[in-house]
Amino acid sequence: MKKLLRLLPMAAALAICSPVQAQQAPQCGTNGIALQLLGSGGPISDDARASSGAIIWINGKARILIDAGGGTYLRYGQSGARLEDLDFIGISHFHTDHSADLPAILKGGYFLAKSHPVQLVGPTGNANFPSMTAFFQREFGKGKGSFAYLSGLSSASEGLKLAVHSADVDVRKTAPTVVWRGDGVTISALGIPHGDVPALAFRIETPKGVIILSADQNGSRKEFIDFARGADILMMPAAIDDDADEESRFLHATPTVVGKIAAATGPKMLLLDHFMGRSLRDKDHNIQIIHGFYHGPVNAGRDLSCFPLSH
Ligand SMILES: [Zn+2]
Questions:
Q1: How far lies 103's CA from each of 110, 170, 185, in Å?
Q2: pTM of the entire structure?
């Protein structure tokens, strides 16, 4: 247990969920609306963090899941989130560190007391990456999917209690696409440039404020500035340093680019995730670089960090 505690967050600016307590009951978002990170790491396990994933708590229920990278299955359980409360899943892109645990999380649909629908949204595909709907078929398609034994997921049948409806958002669209509405919450998605990988960012507008979850991107799409403007929380990946090579900068935003985006969009708080070995070692220096452009609070996310919206 001591080892577990060392790996999990013990401090964050707004609020923190105790991982020990979270195994027994939800501590994040008991009232109001809160963002909780499931994973704050990258695609390599040596950062000892789960890969990307986050949930949005609405009045004590984890209604929204964005990304399900490796390790988020465990953190999902530790957070106290319950599958029977889940209404919406957004997958930003089909790198393993954003999507690999999706089948493991959905498998829990066997064990629910009653069925309910889940909207699953992801990007359109290209020659190298599947669309959301193609991914769903490759994973769960009846008779041919890798996990065909879970094919009942599409219709809450064959023992599965989830009716998962998958849909694609065209990453080339210049205007945001509304992908879910419920209980005063509106989620929209916009394509973001992540090398040649089709990818989406999500904007979650709630009665208590706005959360922008940007997955991996190099920061070069001007439409993202309008999309992300005026957020209470803007989450951006901190995957690379300013001196990263050209290939890495084609995939990811450097601290300078993250700082410029934060300055242009003006969030009340910038939250960093997707730390990798080197960016973790250089974290303080990289935050200094960001502060050269953006003068608001910057938080370095940890697995299970909890950030309530305060107004
Ligand atoms: Zn990626």
A1: 12, 23, 26
A2: 0.91
